């Protein structure tokens, strides 16, 4: 896996992923996301992929899955994440709460590389979920 980061100007950089996609990174937040926001987005994407995939394999009728991710950072430099909270809102038809609990647990403990890497680095990650039924 590879990514290249090219400085544009001031605090603006462009990342090009190995799969050919571009991401704007900007410490001033005028044309892109801050680098630490992208870490949260990567974590949220990684664990969301797992949760949806596990639920689909369990034949759950998922209509929507949104992961709300927020974090606390250390007050000192380096301002690393100290705690990250991920709250899943899973919407669907006749979704069993036990399946959602299992999917979140499997992602957190076995499948999500980003989550496991951050936890091994000392970040406390808290997972929660809610299930919304639709007709």
From TrEMBL:
Pfam families: OsmC
Domain of life: Bacteria
InterPro entries linked: KH_dom-like_a/b, OsmC/Ohr_fam, OsmC/Ohrsf
UniProt name for this protein: OsmC-like protein
């Amino acid at each position: 896996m590879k990514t290249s980061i090219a400085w544009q100007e001031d605090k603006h950089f462009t990342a090009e992923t190995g799969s050919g996609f571009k991401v704007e990174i900007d410490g001033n937040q005028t044309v892109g996301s801050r680098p630490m926001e992208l870490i949260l987005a990567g974590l949220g994407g990684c664990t969301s992929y797992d949760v949806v995939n596990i639920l689909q394999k369990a034949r759950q009728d998922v209509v929507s899955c949104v992961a709300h991710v927020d974090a606390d950072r250390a007050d000192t430099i380096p301002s690393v994440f100290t705690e990250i909270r991920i709250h899943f809102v899973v919407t669907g038809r006749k979704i069993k709460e036990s399946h959602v609990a299992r999917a979140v647990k499997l992602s957190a403990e076995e499948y999500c590389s980003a989550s496991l890497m951050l936890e091994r680095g000392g970040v406390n990650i808290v997972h929660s979920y809610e299930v919304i039924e639709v007709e």
